[in-house]
Amino acid sequence: MQYILARRRQLLEMLTAENNYLQMAPEAVAKRIRTHIRWLEKEREVCSGRAPVMAALYMGALLVARYNPTIKEFYERLLKADKSKKVALVVYMRKLLTILNALMRDHAVWRSPHALTP
To answer: What is the dihedral angle through the alpha carbons of 27, 32, 33, 35, rounded to the nearest 10 degrees?
Structure first.
């Protein structure tokens, strides 16, 4: 947790410094600074949240999107709707979390309609 807070502080300091440089930079350099500022703002968004939970959900969503036919359909539908692969995966991470919470609430076991049952 300390690492995440330290990284967030570092990104905020870098963002402040870049905004200050932008005010007095010549136009040739200002374009590169604006690009860096956009990157820093994206990086800051990614750093928020619970890292261990996000890592577990990311790996789980990656595997399920690849191998589970039910979920793969949902993932492919997002890709056909012109979502990037990462955005589609994050959308599915949220869906996976909702499914897991519902399974825990109902004390149920996941049963895929495509599962091979004897």
So the answer is: 130
C-alpha R_g of the chain = 20
Those residues whose C-beta lies under 8 Å from the C-beta of residue 4, and which sit 6 or more positions away, are 47, 51
pLDDT digits (tens, 9 = 90+) for 31-81: 888 888 787 777 555 555 677 777 778 888 888 888 888 778 888 888 898
Round to whole Å and give the CA distance between 117 and 38: 50
- Tell me how crowded residue 64 is: count the other CB atoms within 10 A of its CB: 20
Exposed, middle or buried: residue 6 (CB in 10 Å: 0-12, 13-18, 19+)? exposed
